[in-house]
Amino acid sequence: MSSPCIISVAITGSLPRKENNPAVPISIAEQVESTHAAYEAGAALVHLHVRNDDQTPTSNPERFAQVQAGIARHCPGMIIQFSTGGRSGNGLERGGMLHLRPDMASLATGSCNFPSIIYMNPPDLILHLAEQMKTYAIKPEIEVFDLSMLYQALRLADEGMIPKPLHVQFVFGIKNCMPAVWQVLEFQVAELKRLMPEATWAAAGIGRHQLELNHWALKLNGHCRTGLEDNVRYDGSRLAASNAELVGRVAELCGQYDRHPASPSEARTLLRLRPAA
Ligand code: MG
Fold first, then answer.
1. Burial 78-110 (b: 16+ CB within 10 A, else e)
2. Largest interatomic CA distance in the chain
3. Of 260, 239, 242, 243, whose CA–CA distance to 251 is shortest?
4. Beta strand 139-144 with 118-119: parallel, antiparallel or unpaired?
5. Quick one: residue 28, left, alpha or beta (phi over 0 = left, psi -120 to 50 = alpha)?
6. How do beta strands 112-113 and 118-119 pair?
7. Is the pLDDT at 72 greater than 70, yes or no?
8. How far is the CA of 228 from the centre of ligand 1 (A)?
9. Which residue, among 98, 117, 111, has the nearest Cα to 48 in the 3D structure?
10. CA–CA distance, 217 with 201 (Å, rounded to integer)
11. How far is the CA of 229 from the centre of ligand 1 (A)?
């Protein structure tokens, strides 16, 4: 029997919509609609950033609440994951919407360079966000942008700051950060399995590396992330039409690796999440 692959869709990142990414959903209605189409195409998890109407990234709880409610209504069971990433606020603001109790939230366990900024995650901020997630019973998705972040997450889990087992997202292909190298993924997965055999993981490739990482994760029995936050092109010759198109591509690939897209309830079981409200 084929094994399930949780397809995560990162529908909207932090960059403004321009002529090179016209399909990125911005308004609440667009975000809900885009998530719904991705859900129908096989995504079980949505990774969410929200924007103000003027497109600036925000961690405004009001905005998160509206998108969360719309997705819950139209996509029964889908796992909702809020981003606590650095571009939607400063410092403690980044966790200012966690009281809305999404199923999951992203948590980067270290700092690194991005193309033109330092992605700052100082130890006290990591602890603060982890504590908030604990308070509201939110499962963190550990964002590993660089090798040391994996070991910091394992340590925090040992110290009881993050619940076990971990769910880790390995992110590849950001300029100035971890390059998309097969052996690096293989090593990281081996380390995770050695140190926490019951952990789950996914991988994300940025830009032209997206499809490559989808293949690698399927092959290594991990889970996949796709979506317009990470990559706006379908291939070298054209832009992606929608988040659903990118999800559909992964759903189709699953067959090549004896995998199938996990349903939301299968995904909840794999990630040890509570059943949908
Ligand atoms: Mg993000």
1. bbbbbbbbbbbbeeeebbbbbebbbbbbbbbbb
2. 48
3. 260
4. unpaired
5. alpha
6. antiparallel
7. yes
8. 10
9. 98
10. 9
11. 7
Task: For residue 207, give both structure tokens.
Answer: 């830009």
The phi and psi torsions of 89 (rounded to 5 degrees) equal 165, 175
E-only strand ranges, 185-275? 200-205, 223-226, 233-235, 238-239, 259-261
What is the reported pLDDT for 161?
96
Residue with tokens 């990281």: 188
pTM of the complete model: 0.97
pLDDT at residue 20 in the model: 80
Residue with tokens 């981003």: 83
Question: Domains along the chain?
Answer: 3-271 (3.20.20.70)
Question: How many A from CA of 1 to the centre of ligand 1?
Answer: 33
| Cα atoms in the Cβ-side hemisphere of radius 13 Å centred on 170 | 33
Q: Are 232 and 24 in contact (CB under 8 A)?
A: yes
Question: Which residue matches tokens 């950033």?
Answer: 49
The mean per-residue pLDDT over the stretch 8-25 comes to 88
Which DSSP state fits 96?
T
Average pLDDT of 110-125? 94
C-alpha distances (whole Å) from 130 to each of 27, 64, 81, 120, 169 are 29, 19, 14, 15, 16
Question: Which residues are found with C-beta within 5 Å of the ion, ligand 1?
Answer: 83, 85
Average pLDDT over residues 148-160: 98
257 Cα to the center of ligand 1, angstroms: 27
Report how far residue 94's alpha carbon sits from residue 130's, in angstroms, rounded to the nearest whole number.
12
